[in-house]
Specification:
The structure holds 2 protein chains of 2 kinds. By secondary structure, chain A is mostly helical. The longest helix of chain A is centred in the middle third of the chain and has 26 residues. Chain B is an alpha/beta fold. Chain B has 2 domains: 108 residues, 5'-nuclease (Rossmann fold, 3-Layer(aba) Sandwich), CATH 3.40.50.1010; 31 residues. Helices cover 53% and strands 12% of the residues of chain B. Chain B contains 8 helices and 5 strands. Chain B has a 5-stranded parallel β-sheet. The chains are: A mainly alpha, B alpha/beta. Chains A and B meet through α3, α4 and α5 of A and α1, α5, β5, α6 and α8 of B.
Amino acid sequence: MNITITLPKHAIAEVDALAKEKKNISRKRTLRKLVLQSLETERKRRIARLYQRGRKTLRQCAEMLGTDVEGMMKILYDLDIPLSNGSADDFLKNLKMIREQQPWAFKAPLDKDGGKA
Amino acid sequence: MRFVLDTSSLLNLRNLEWLGILKSEKDEFFCPEKVEKEIRRGKSRNQEILRLFQEDIVAVQKVSQYVDFASVSNADAEVISLALESQSTIISDDAPLRETANHYGVSAIDIAGFVLLTYQQGRMDHNECSSHLTSLFKKKILSKSKYHQLLTLIRS
């Protein structure tokens, strides 16, 4: 399928310079490559945002991008998205759950204010 | 304490060269077969993790009562199912997975949480704990806000 686009002169000059750099490939092929690359990057960003917002797990995102858990971790790293977001409150909430489920493991629990009891 | 390890936490522990933290006599670590498969399919650097399975430091367990949690993948569901049936806490750096686990009454922490637990049990001193949290922040595992919140938490 063919599409026609209008670009400012400086952008066309950039494309031509890039084409020359890449062993003189045609303007058309250079543009095609650039479009496909940025679509792929946008796709990664879009799926990484799903993870960041808690909508999809790491594995689900990896599957959507055709990679594995480690590959997805690398994508998040490259996009500056912290892997384990959340808050200290999440930890405290889970600490309470662990205390109830495995009480024998606790001798001096952290209190809500952060100090040691 | 009993823990179920997820792939994300095992990979991060390997990347940080902290796998030794799992060699604790006080804790038991499990992982479901699907996590083991993911590790096995991974890079050659995963040999260190596979050694933990071979040495039974992390016991690979078959899930006998698989629960199909609609909102997550099969491997995610196996992690939660194993934690449910073994009454363990999940260690995963996958925040949405932890949230789903919590929704079904399963406790789940990330590596930072595990570091805090270790500190709390007196098996790590304050400096070591804050230096571990700093490493997690620098490796973009912890967000800046969570890092500062956790530092405040351990400051007594």
